[in-house]
Amino acid sequence: MSLENKNTDSEGINASHKKENAFENIKYLIVGIFFGIVFVKAEIISWFRIQEMFHLESFHMYGVIGCAVVVGLISVQLIKKFNIKTLQGEKIEIQPKTFNKGQIYGGLLFGFGWAITGACPGPLFAQIGTGATVIVVTLVSAIAGTWVYGLIKDKLPH
C-alpha cells in the first residue's frame, strides 16, 4: 500500500488494519505499567534529575537519552536488515524524513516546556501515578498544545 493511500495524519503509515478488542489491548496496559515502574526506578521522571540535566550538572539523563538513541538506531537497522514485521504480522515501512526549519522551532519549544515543567510527554503518566498530581496541569497543557497545533498546522510553514 502506498503512502498516498493511507491517512498519515490520524493513523500513520504503519497503522494496523487489524482491530483488537478491549481485552486484547490489556498487553499495552501491562507494558505501560512496566515502563512506568522502570521510569520511576531509573529516576527518569524526577524533576531534580531533569533540572540537573538542563543545568549541565549531571550526566544521568544524557546517558539515558543516549542509550535510547543507540537502542533506536540498532533497532531500526535490524528492522530494515531482517525485514521484521509488526506483532500483527504486517510490514514495517520506514519513510524518509525531510528537514525543515519548523523542526528547530518545535524542538526549542519542546525543550523550553520540558525545562520549565520538568516533564516530557513520556513520563507524564508515571509522574501522576507517583502522586505528583500537579503534573495534570502539564498533561492538559500538552493535550491543548497538540489540539491547537492540529487546528493551525495547515497555516504553518512546513
Question: Summed up, what is this model?
Answer:
The protein has helices at residues 26-41, 47-54, 60-82, 102-117, 124-129, 135-152. The chain has 158 residues and is an all-alpha fold.
Chain-wise SSE layout:
Elements: H1 26-41, H2 47-54, H3 60-82, H4 102-117, H5 124-129, H6 135-152
Protein name: YeeE/YedE thiosulfate transporter family protein
Keywords: Membrane, Transmembrane, Transmembrane helix
Transmembrane segments: 28-48, 60-79, 104-126, 132-152
Describe the structure.
The chain has about 160 residues and is an all-alpha fold. It folds into 2 domains: about 100 residues, no CATH class; about 60 residues, no CATH class. About 55% of the residues lie in helices and about 0% in strands. The chain is built from 6 helices and no strands. The longest helix has 23 residues. It is globular, with a radius of gyration of 18 Å. The two termini are about 25 Å apart. The N terminus is likely disordered.
